[in-house]
Specification:
By secondary structure, the chain is mainly alpha-helical. It folds into two domains: about 350 residues, no CATH class; about 45 residues, no CATH class. It is about 60% helix and about 5% strand. The chain has 15 helices and six strands. Strand 1 and strand 2 form a beta hairpin. The chain starts with 19 loop residues before the first helix and ends with a helix. The N terminus and C terminus are likely disordered.
Length: about 450
């Protein structure tokens, strides 16, 4: 009995040849998949965090509480839509749309599987592909940031405005590091096409070959998703609800939808770029020849996708919210310099390998240099902490000087007689009175 030959792996030339009904079916399938993923992600998150906190979680709406997400969506749709008087109504209504639509667009370039037969047509299990497909995801993520910033600005609320400003700074910081983590993948794959990147991982996943890039991406995708521990734009303990404080009903639901779709998109992108995409893990692919053909790869892709979603949920239930200065320091002072150094190292190794040099010596010298740089950075950080995090002296209004903040942030030292113009009991307040009367 002859075994049918598997269809070749898709390439860029495999796209643009489908009939209109097949293209429309793919778009509809991706839309339905994202909506169902959002509903299931909400249920999974509540159940997992409930178990972590020794409680039950949703168990009333539907069997095992599976319809809880659908019930929440219906509730939000039927709630009264409250629009404050002072808001910029056009921008206020447009902001949730700007935030939600790019989240759907990003998933169009994610490959779900190889070439399969659908009603007699050979087609890749992917919406479409581009020579710069990964850059499309970064562009859509940047567009989504506009929705958050516009929501904060148009709400005419200080809490919303602060949340929008935080989101802008956070996304800028972490998108740069995220883009740098992709560069090493592009160097090894030789393409920015998601199809080409998956094909380049036929022998070994990039998560193994480019482990530092993978780790940087894992951190940056948490900052990009605005979730705990990096949910500063909507920190309930500081900003009530952040950028969406003034939103209700369907407008709030669109922000909610965009957050969970971004969760799925970031997880799918990590799967595509670093975990071999739809390809089966090594033990399965080596034992079973048909593991990477037909519809089976969809199963491997979904397993990797949900593994990342579980990772997001686990972090939310385990880690506290970081301080804003810690968030910015991690992005600008650690992730970006590290990513730039790693890219230089990868490019150098690739160039020397192409010229036929001994890579053992190169790897040893690279490890020595990296270790020296890490030791110097740790020593510099320890010296800075010993000086009181910069050792700056804040001048007081009476001509004196406040002592250094004793490692505390943002609480001033308790032993300071004057600090930023606030006089403690028993201190001389003459200078403050003179300043207030305009004598100085």
């Amino acid at each position: 009995m002859s075994v049918p030959l598997a269809a070749p792996d898709p390439t860029l030339q495999s796209f643009g040849q489908d009939p209109w009904w097949l293209i429309g079916g793919k778009v509809l399938a991706i839309f339905v998949f994202l909506v169902l993923t959002v509903l299931l992600s909400m249920w999974v998150e509540r159940r997992i965090i409930g178990r972590m906190q020794l409680r039950v979680g949703p168990n009333r709406a539907g069997p095992f509480g599976l319809l809880q997400g659908l019930a929440d969506g219906v509730k939000l749709a039927l709630k009264e839509d409250i629009v404050p008087r002072q808001v910029d109504k056009v921008v206020f209504v447009l902001a949730p749309v700007v935030s939600a639509v790019p989240a759907f667009v990003s998933f169009i370039i994610i490959p779900f599987g190889p070439t399969v037969s659908i009603f007699g047509h050979q087609t890749p299990l992917q919406g479409t592909d581009l020579p710069v497909a990964v850059l499309l995801v970064l562009a859509m993520a940047s567009m989504g940031a506009y929705g958050i910033v516009l929501a904060g600005w148009s709400s005419m609320s200080p809490y919303s405005l602060l949340g929008g400003l935080r989101s802008a700074a956070q996304i800028i910081s972490y998108e740069i590091a995220m883009g740098l983590s992709f560069v090493a993948v592009f160097l090894f794959a030789g393409t920015m096409s998601t199809t080409g990147i998956v094909n380049a991982q036929a022998d070994r996943w990039f998560a193994v070959m480019l482990l530092p890039s993978f780790l940087v991406y894992v951190v940056t995708m948490m900052g990009e998703s605005n979730r705990i521990p990096f949910d500063l734009p909507e920190g309930e303990g500081e900003l009530v609800g952040g950028f969406h404080t003034e939103y209700s009903s369907l407008k709030f639901a669109m922000f909610f939808l965009a957050e969970y779709i971004n969760l799925a998109t970031l997880s799918a992108l990590a799967t595509t770029l670093f975990l071999g995409g739809w390809r089966a893990p090594a033990p399965i692919s080596t034992v079973w020849e048909g593991a990477n053909s037909g519809w089976w790869p969809v199963l491997w892709f979904l397993a990797k996708l949900w593994l990342f979603i579980f990772f997001f949920v686990w972090l939310r239930g385990s880690l506290p919210r970081v301080r804003y200065d810690q968030l910015m320091k991690l992005g600008w002072k650690i992730l970006m310099p590290f990513s730039l150094g790693w890219i230089l190292l990868v490019a150098t190794i690739r160039g020397l390998r192409n010229e036929g040099h001994d890579m053992t010596q190169v790897a040893i010298w690279a490890a020595v240099v990296i270790g020296a740089v890490l030791l110097l950075s740790i020593a510099w950080d320890l010296v800075g902490r010993g000086r009181g995090d910069g050792g700056e002296i804040v001048p007081d209004l009476d001509g004196g000087a406040a002592p250094e903040a004793a490692g505390g942030f943002p609480v001033p030292p308790l032993d300071a007689p004057h600090y930023h113009g606030v006089a403690r009991e028993g201190a001389d307040v003459t200078a403050h009175k003179e300043v207030a009367s305009g004598s100085h």
